[in-house]
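Morning F.,

Quick status update on the modeling queue. The single chain you submitted on Monday has been processed. Sequence for confirmation:
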Amino acid sequence: MNTARLRADRARMHKDKPAVVLENTTYTYGELDREIARYAAVLDAVGVRTTDRIAIQLPKTIEFVFLESAILSVGAVTLPLNPDYQPDEIEYFLSDSRSRFFFTDRERFRRAAHVLRSLPGVRVLLTDDPDPAGSHAMPREPIHAGTRFERTYPAGGDDVATIIYTSGTTGRSKGAMLTHRNLISNMQALHETWEWSSDDILLHVLPLFHVHGLFVALHGALNAGATVIMHDRFDPSRTWETIERGKCTVLMGVPTMYQRLVTHWEGKDTKPDLRSMRLFISGSAPLPETLFNRFEEHTGYRILERYGTSETGMIASNSTDPAGRKAGSVGHALPGVQLRIVSAQGTDASPLEVGEVWVRGENVFKGYWGMPDKTSDSFRDGWFRTGDMGYVDREDGNRLYLVGRANDLIISGGYNVYPKEIENVLEGHPGVREAAVVGIPDHDFGERVTAAVVLTESAEVSADDLIRYCRERLAGYKCPKRAVFVDALPRNAMGKLRKDILLKRIS
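Structure tokens below.
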């Protein structure tokens, strides 16, 4: 089955129902499908063929939605790129993927024109007006007028549907190849787990270039026949207002968004009516336990945390039943997904023992584009090694808890130190808004446990105060030897902490 064909089937079932509402413009399922069909005809006419890599760098627009699905319709491979990527980054992604077409807008073309000229094999088409510097506008209609184009969906199953580049925090960014089977199996597992229905109204405040915003949120909602109210960017005040006015039922966000939402809530005299809401879902970065508890205390809603990666889509999720959600846990494996926790010795870890999370299932990607050695290193006997460290509580149905990345592990004085445990303690201090713990190279200890801390407004607390606070709650070897105050922690567009950047700043 082709991912876009599945969406076209849903469009026929719900043709007169609102599918996407973007900045007060409504597109029904029928209108959405007609535009996707028109775009697919244009792609065919300009020479897009099966297996071509087609890069898209656009802001959050309806043209992105049309293009992404149209590309899949003609059997090509989508390459969604962050609209904020700079010219050198664009040059790398286009050349590494050997993309044949690059769809962007005039603003981004002008920004990257000098590097695009060095890529003669890439045809650049703009979704808005052509630029005198040498680009061309995407045709509005098929070139061969009078001919009828039928979508045949020539790719599907184990054919690659999209290449998602990882954030590249530990080296060259890798392109994860996700197949149609990967996307569909994960979408169906989430449909069951989150109890999606055509009655749902998703408030979409995430970017569209990422797995979270594109496949989990947009694809998931449209697969269910739900309505998607889409904001071009996240704003906490507007988010609360839209939930109430639009009678939304589902919101997906990253922890940074929930931090801003609850802070804004605290400052509102009149609280928004949330009775329509069914699920507040968080992902893409760990949700601090203090934020989980603070959000529930103020709103009465318990955030549903889930866990996934670019290479696997979603892996685990807490329950739609609030009683089945626990702070600090990402829940249980999704239907069709198998989990293992593997010790440093390569054996299955004991109950509650920390090890690396390994995954197997139809959701697991095909491999890294053009990197067979990296692909081989990432798999063992059919299991994908996520690089995430965690443990399971077998007495609670193999509930999964994450403690950080394998490369975040700090070895201090011969002891293994997991930063998330210390971060949770620090964020329990009333004067701390958020914290990140890293290991700084040290002659005596090997690595010195160091905390970067963002304080709450008007907090009066010293570094020594925080170190003492940790010593009262943790074994001595885990406690920070140094605490550094920062205005903000460096994060990427999806809210993931960039510890590589943090290390450079505080070393």
